[in-house]
Amino acid sequence: MEIGPAVEFIVGTTRGVLLTIKPDGRPHASNVTYAVFDDAVHVSVTNSRVKTANLRRDSRVSLYVGVSDFWRWVVVEGDAILSPVVARRDDGVAALLRRYYETAAGPHPDWDEFDAAMIEEQRLVVSFRPDAAYGQLG
After folding, report:
1. CA 27 to chain centre
2. Blockwise average pLDDT, block size 10, the chain, 138 residues
3. Using CA atoms, how far apart are residues 10 and 87, in angstroms rounded to an integer?
4. What is the pTM of this model?
5. CATH architecture, range 3-85+125-136
6. Three-class SS state of 1
7. Residue 86: its pLDDT value, please?
8. What is the pLDDT of residue 9?
9. How far is CA 82 from CA 1, 74, 99, in A?
10. H or E segment at 97?
11. In 10 A of CB 34, how many CB atoms?
């Protein structure tokens, strides 16, 4: 499958299943909300999650996105880059988290509250540029 149509498909929603690789080689699946911008997929994660540890060890990642009719779905794959953990409201990671949120969910009613929650939760952003895709669009 060509990457272009796969990315067009996943832009149509913001929920999917992120797959990482566990230490024993089996997949680890997590329901996630994601956003697509700057030719990459972005997911907000916490520093302590299994998927974050998996990606620090092995950057290969897949995102499965399906729709309610069950028969149309896409998987995009790539190599993840992890941002630093957000530390301050004025750092680049805070800005990236705000952009992720706004793209996936729309404007937040209180950005100061949002920033404080991101810092408290020790959030970071997983980003990857899809370099392979497969699925069923028709």
Report:
1. 16
2. 96 95 98 97 97 98 94 97 97 97 96 97 98 95
3. 30
4. 0.95
5. Roll (2.30)
6. coil
7. 98
8. 96
9. 26, 23, 16
10. helix 92-105
11. 22
Length of the chain as a residue count:
138
Both tokens of residue 120? 């408290």
| Residue 63 host element (H or E) | strand 60-66
Distance CA 36, CA 7 (A): 8
Torsion 92-94-100-102 (CA) sign: negative
Q: What is the pLDDT of residue 138?
A: 81
Euclidean distance between CA atoms 135 and 75, whole angstroms:
6
Cβ-proximal residues to 17 (8 Å cutoff; 6+ apart), any chain: 29, 30, 31, 32, 63, 64, 65
- In contact, 13 and 101? CB cutoff 8 Å: no
Question: 23: buried, middle or exposed (CB in 10 Å: 19+, 13-18, 0-12)?
Answer: exposed
The residue with tokens 């929650």 is 117
| Rounded distance between C-alpha atoms, residue 41 and residue 34, angstroms | 7
Residue 51 in tokens: 């998927």
Token pair of 3 as six digits = 């990457």
pLDDT of the residue at 68: 87
Distance CA 97, CA 110 (A): 14
